[in-house]
Design a protein that fits this description.
Order of helices and strands: EHEHEHEHEHHEEHEHHHHHH
Strand order of the largest sheet: 3-2-1-4-5-6-7-8
Helix content: 40-55%
Radius of gyration: 22 Å
Distance between the termini: 28 Å
Mean pLDDT: 93
CATH architecture of the largest domain: 3-Layer(aba) Sandwich
Length: 304
């Protein structure tokens, strides 16, 4: 394909996005100030080629991954930019000013930011440049997790949103467009709410960190891999659907009182997690996670 993409930032998210874009047939330029960028890019190209070979795909069905020495060289002539640099409120606007100055006038400028809205990143850009800036927030790793939260600012052009959605879909992703900007977007706000309750349960001695994960994996996580929160409640309400569910259990849910918030016990939570899973996350655990997630995605593809 002639459509080319720039990936700015070769950390965990940037490398995963670069792999996804190349594996989807797009040529990709990668820039990062890291000293080992050449090795990173070579490894990405080798991994993309090896994966394509296992699927018996011809060489013209995968894109090349190339190194760019500068931001300006990376974005020159591309149609889509995916910025995945540090979550730095001061650095991102300055980086996007450089990107906007050097990218083509019709290039889509997306950021992987988890919390910083596009309106902040594009605040000092010209109207023409700000019109092309939006958030394309993935869940890690984006080459595996289908969701991309597409979050336009009030200045983002509707045609830019449509084009970004079409691009992510062409890479096999499941983009969801948010109706307005909100810090943390949707996925992280939900995760944050659950994390607060999980920390409270462990701090108050209700359950250990490892056992809480067992609860998640063997109940809610399993259910939510098949249906969402609202659909699950709708199915659980019988013929009356979600109305029946809330009539039956809504008042009982509302009566669940918050536990005491003892933030001083966070070190105990850390210790329990490290006892359950090791002092450092293991590559084997990440590989097992990815195998399970692939299996779930494969099972879902048979019914979607």
């Amino acid at each position: 394909m002639s459509f080319s993409v720039a990936v700015i930032g070769a950390g965990t998210i940037g490398r995963s996005f670069a792999w996804l874009f190349a594996r989807s047939g797009y040529s990709v330029r990668v820039h990062d100030p890291r000293d080992d960028l050449a090795e990173v890019v070579a490894a990405l190209q080798a991994d993309v080629s090896a994966d394509a070979a296992t699927q018996d795909l011809p060489a013209d069905r995968i894109g090349a991954v190339e190194l760019a020495e500068t931001v300006e060289a990376a974005v020159a002539g591309v149609s889509f930019v995916q910025e995945s640099g540090p979550e730095d409120l001061q650095a991102k606007p300055m980086l996007f000013a450089r990107i906007a100055d050097s990218a083509p006038a019709d290039a889509i400028l997306a950021t992987s930011s988890s919390t910083i809205p596009a309106s902040t990143i594009a605040a000092d850009l010209s109207p023409e440049a700000a019109r092309r800036v939006l958030v394309g927030h993935p869940f890690n790793p984006p080459h595996l997790m289908p969701l991309v939260e597409v979050v336009p600012s009030p200045r983002t052009g509707p045609e830019v949103v449509e084009a970004a959605v079409a691009f992510y879909r062409s890479c096999g992703r499941k983009p969801v467009v948010l109706g307005r900007e909100v810090r943390g977007f949707v996925g992280n706000r939900l995760q944050n709410a659950l994390l607060k309750e999980a920390l409270s349960l462990v701090r108050n001695g209700v359950i250990s960190a490892g056992e809480l994960d067992a609860v998640m994996k063997n109940s809610l996580g399993l259910r939510w891999s098949a249906v969402g929160l609202f659909e699950g409640m709708h199915l659980g309400g019988g013929e009356a659907g979600i109305r029946g569910f809330m009539d039956h259990i809504g008042s009982a849910f509302a009566a669940i009182e918050p536990l005491p918030d003892d933030t001083g016990q966070i070190e105990e939570v850390f210790a329990q997690v490290e006892e359950a899973y090791g002092q450092r996350p293991s590559p084997g655990a990440a590989e097992a996670r990815d195998r399970i997630q692939r299996a779930v995605l494969q099972a879902r593809s048979q019914v979607d």
